[in-house]
């Protein structure tokens, strides 16, 4: 029976309107989602059970594979430790010098026992070592006397049996709860080539195994049983031949199945995945249902919008070819008719708007282009300024870095050069003198690098002043041809210079250095063919050229070959191919003399380096004489010297070397120390050598001035004074040169020290020479 009251419980708001819309809207989408959710629950149960079984079995197989991999890795590590241990011990026994020292017992307490004490561990493994004579009596050990690693009487008894057999032996011994590897190597006496003793070493077996769950087994007994619910992986070890009879194996024990913790996470994880999957299925199904009914909802919203706001060109979206799509196409036909009426009316207004917009856009474009041009010009100017500042900072940083690196290297190199020279003098004809020669050769290579850096720093500091005089270019060519012809012939390269009688005004040493560096560069990179040195006249310049048939230079490298340390075909930094500073020095010297250097090259064909000298240097009145013959190292005579240097190694090396020349030397580490020592001496020194940098910020210049003042107060003449420096900073070089003292740059060799001692006695300089008289302005070759 129908309720006649329109305000009954259903119609009087008992069910809110919002709830009614939720129950009535999207009913098809909800039904589709619920059906999909039911199917998803069934599928999730089936798939989850299958995945759980498969994952459990996979975890077990993966666990077994991991245990085997860990066992193999631990075995390889143990093999490496055993190999290192046996190799180190064998090298000790095969050292003939060590065997001889042990037998002769000369100096054993002085150097042998401290040497053996350094072998407390081999490859981080604790080891006890004992050297014995041929009867098994201990001679020396490495100091391992603490139990349980100490070697006992039973171990020595076994060693004597091994010595009687006369060959290496090894065994595993049990001491309490610990097993040890006990092995012996025979000592061979160098003069008889027969066993004269033995080396016994003892190592805990557990220290050879790095894995905490692994143990080392040997073939002397049955292995311990494997615990229940455990698996064991045994890996035979590949060991040196001396240990092969022990049958060493590494065994790793692990649980037979993954721990419960590995499996307990699977069910919650699969449950979580199932819940998330069902949630995704429901949301996806609801989205699919909404997608299927969206065309109807869009038509509903479009009709409502047109009814409310009027037609503004809306269109219904047509999807597919079903009934809903046919309805949408009919709706659009109606909208097209409405649009045709409005289109004609709006066309004229649109044309006018278009014209106005075009004019506005052109005006805005013109303004933007003008503003962009101004911004581009300002940005270009700022970039140029920034590039110049970056280049200047980079150049200054490079100069300071080279100076600091050169100074820090010259201190230890100087001590090595001086101590090596003193050692060579004291060894004389001793068999070890050949080793000193090898050390001196290495020192020479390092000194050439440091001197080349010094040359760069001198040129950057502006302390090199050209000495212009008449120079015979033909004399330089002839001298270089005589010097390099044989060196070139050894490489299978023909070297020839074209004779010339050209004479010009130049600095002979700097000009020859430029040409010599170019010839050196050609010789390094030419393995066949020829090298030609010559000159020719060109309008406005004299052109000196070095032509070679070497490897050539790719075009992209032509601008950078004059940079410091830049080499194209020397990736291994072979010292035989130079240091990469020769062409950098050529470029700086050329600019110093007002010349221009350039290069033309073709890869695999050869190169031609050209030096253009302005014709203002031609002609000259007379030609300079040839280069003087090389002087022999002088005999320094006898005298006294005062050395002031805060570096103990340099001070000791310089003292030993000067004393080897027959001089008496007083060494001090500061100016105050030097003044104190001078007060106790009855006569003044003939020579004072001071390092430029002393401790606490003091300088050698201050020390020399203090010594001169102290000697003058006592009525003594000023001695010869020399400043020794390893600093190559341009400002430091300029400061030292301006002092007027004689400047020598580290490292100095024994020949230079001998020359310095000889000059101090023959020249008898008094006090400080005139500025520039003895400046060391020579540019050394790269």
Automatic annotation (TrEMBL):
Coiled-coil ranges from the UniProt annotation: 356-383
Major location category of this protein: membrane
Span list, region Disordered: 622-641, 759-782
4-aspartylphosphate: residues bearing it: 691
Domain HAMP, residue spans: 290-343
SMART domains listed in its UniProt record: HAMP, HATPase_c, HisKA, REC
Protein name: histidine kinase
Organism: Azospirillum oryzae
């Amino acid at each position: 029976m129908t309720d006649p009251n329109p305000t009954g419980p259903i119609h009087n708001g008992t069910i809110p309107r919002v709830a009614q819309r939720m129950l009535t809207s999207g009913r098809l989408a909800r039904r589709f989602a619920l059906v999909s959710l039911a199917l998803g629950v069934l599928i999730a149960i089936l798939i989850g059970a299958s995945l759980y079984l498969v994952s459990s079995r996979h975890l077990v197989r993966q666990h077994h594979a991991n245990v085997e991999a860990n066992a193999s890795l631990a075995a390889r590590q143990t093999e490496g430790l055993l190999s290192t241990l046996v190799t180190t011990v064998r090298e000790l026994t095969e050292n003939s010098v060590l065997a001889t020292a042990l037998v002769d017992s000369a100096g054993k307490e002085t150097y042998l026992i401290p040497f053996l004490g350094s072998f407390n561990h081999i490859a981080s493994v604790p080891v006890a070592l004992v050297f014995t004579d041929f009867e098994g009596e201990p001679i020396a050990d490495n100091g391992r006397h603490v139990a349980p690693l100490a070697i006992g009487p039973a171990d020595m008894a076994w060693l004597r049996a091994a010595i009687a057999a006369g060959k290496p032996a090894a065994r595993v011994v049990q001491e309490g709860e610990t097993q040890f590897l006990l092995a012996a190597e025979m000592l061979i006496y160098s003069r008889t080539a027969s066993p004269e003793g033995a080396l016994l070493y003892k190592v805990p077996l557990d220290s050879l195994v790095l894995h905490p769950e692994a143990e080392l087994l040997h073939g002397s007994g049955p292995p311990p049983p494997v615990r229940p619910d455990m698996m064991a992986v045994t890996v035979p070890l590949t060991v040196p031949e001396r240990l092969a009879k022990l049958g060493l194996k590494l065994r790793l024990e692990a649980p037979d199945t993954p721990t419960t913790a590995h499996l307990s996470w699977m069910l919650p994880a699969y449950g979580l995945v199932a819940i998330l999957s069902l949630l995704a299925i429901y949301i996806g199904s609801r989205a699919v249902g909404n997608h299927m009914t969206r065309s109807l909802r869009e038509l509903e919203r479009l009709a409502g919008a047109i009814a409310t706001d009027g037609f503004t060109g809306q269109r219904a979206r047509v999807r597919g070819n079903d009934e809903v799509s046919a309805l949408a196409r009919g709706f659009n036909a109606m909208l097209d008719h409405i649009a045709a009426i409005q289109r004609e009316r709006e066309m004229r207004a649109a044309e006018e708007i278009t014209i106005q917009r075009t004019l506005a856009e052109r005006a805005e474009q013109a303004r933007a282009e003008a503003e962009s041009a101004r911004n581009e010009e300002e940005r270009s100017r700022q970039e140029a300024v920034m590039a110049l500042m970056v280049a200047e900072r980079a150049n200054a940083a490079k100069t300071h870095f080279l100076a600091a690196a050169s100074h820090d290297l010259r201190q230890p190199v100087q001590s090595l050069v001086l101590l090596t020279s003193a050692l060579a003098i004291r060894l004389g004809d001793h068999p070890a003198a050949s080793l000193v020669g090898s050390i001196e050769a290495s020192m020479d290579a390092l000194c050439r690098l440091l001197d080349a850096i010094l040359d760069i720093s001198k040129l950057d500091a502006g302390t090199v002043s050209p000495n212009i005089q008449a120079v015979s270019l033909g004399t330089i060519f002839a001298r270089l041809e005589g010097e390099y012809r044989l060196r070139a012939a050894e490489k299978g390269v023909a070297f020839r210079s074209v004779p010339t009688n050209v004479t010009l005004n130049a600095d002979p040493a700097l000009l020859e250095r430029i040409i010599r560096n170019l010839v050196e560069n050609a010789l390094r990179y030419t393995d066949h063919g020829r090298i030609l040195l010559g000159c020719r006249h060109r309008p406005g310049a004299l052109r000196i050229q070095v032509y070679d048939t070497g490897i050539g230079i790719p075009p992209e490298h032509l601008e950078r070959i004059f940079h410091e340390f830049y080499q194209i075909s020397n990736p291994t930094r072979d010292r035989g191919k130079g240091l990469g500073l020769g062409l950098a020095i050529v470029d700086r010297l050329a600019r110093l003399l007002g010349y221009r250097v350039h290069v033309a090259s073709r890869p695999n064909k050869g190169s031609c380096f050209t030096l253009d000298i302005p014709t203002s240097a031609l002609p000259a009145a007379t030609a300079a004489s040839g280069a003087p013959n090389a002087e022999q190292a002088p005999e320094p005579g006898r005298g006294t010297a005062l050395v002031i240097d805060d570096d103990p190694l340099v001070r000791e090396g310089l003292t030993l070397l000067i004393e080897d020349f027959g001089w008496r030397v007083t060494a001090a580490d500061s100016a105050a120390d030097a003044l104190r020592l001078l007060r106790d001496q009855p006569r003044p020194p003939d020579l004072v050598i001071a390092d430029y940098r002393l401790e606490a910020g003091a300088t050698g210049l201050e020390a020399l001035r203090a010594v001169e003042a102290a000697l003058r107060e006592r009525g003594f003449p000023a001695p010869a004074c020399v400043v020794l420096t390893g600093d190559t900073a341009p400002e430091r070089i300029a400061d030292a040169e301006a002092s007027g003292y004689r400047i020598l740059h580290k490292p100095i060799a024994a020949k230079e020290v001998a020359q310095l001692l000889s000059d101090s006695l023959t020249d008898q300089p008094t006090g400080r020479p005139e500025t520039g008289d003895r400046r060391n302005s020579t540019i050394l070759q790269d």
